[in-house]
Amino acid sequence: MQVISKRKSVRNPGENRRGAALVEFAIVAPLFLTLILGTVEIGNALEASSQINAALREAGRLAGMDWVDIVADGETPNEKVIRDIRNFLKAGGYPGDDMAITITSAEDNDYGSTFDLADPDNEMRLFQIAATIPFETISAFPHGFMNGHNISGRIVMRAGRISLMD
Q: How many domains does one find in the chain?
């Protein structure tokens, strides 16, 4: 008499899931990576916005000071303020030369026109300093998602000269 042995193959229960886990990972990993990279990009944008606003705040303080001894010969107060904003941002690691900076009137009658800080007629009038930098110049990643967008800030101040005490 011949004995035929039927052997059952005992498989590890996790073996059946190995292929499914790989497929799930292939679907979820790009989404997770996109979420992480997007968070990094938003962080870069918020940091740049914070630095721009800090630079504008300092520029507004400078514009309100008695800048007679601060401004170099042959330089206007507007040029000094713009140069200081660029230098402030360069010191923070941002490309200050790529930034568009304007100093304009914030009063109703000539809103948006160029504001001359040196003009005595502008004493006690509102002015606006605005700065804009293209996002692609500060982006950590060379993708096209945020290309064409700008990071900007602005501050409105009153023109006045605070004399420095001797």
A: 1
Q: Is the pLDDT of residue 12 over 50?
A: yes
DSSP letters, 71-123, are SPTT--HHHHHHHHHHHHHHHTTS-GGG-EEEEEE-SSTTTTSB--TT-GGGT
For 37-68, how does the pLDDT look when each residue is reduced to its tens digit (9 = 90+)? 888 888 888 998 999 999 999 988 888 777 77
Q: What is the Cα–Cα distance from 34 to 28, expressed in whole angstroms?
A: 10
Would you say residue 2 lies in a domain?
no
C-alpha distances in angstroms, 149 versus 29, 81, 139?
27, 25, 11
What is the number of alpha carbons within 13 Å of residue 30 lying toward its C-beta?
5
Give the strand pairing for 126-134 and 100-105: antiparallel
Within a domain: 6: no
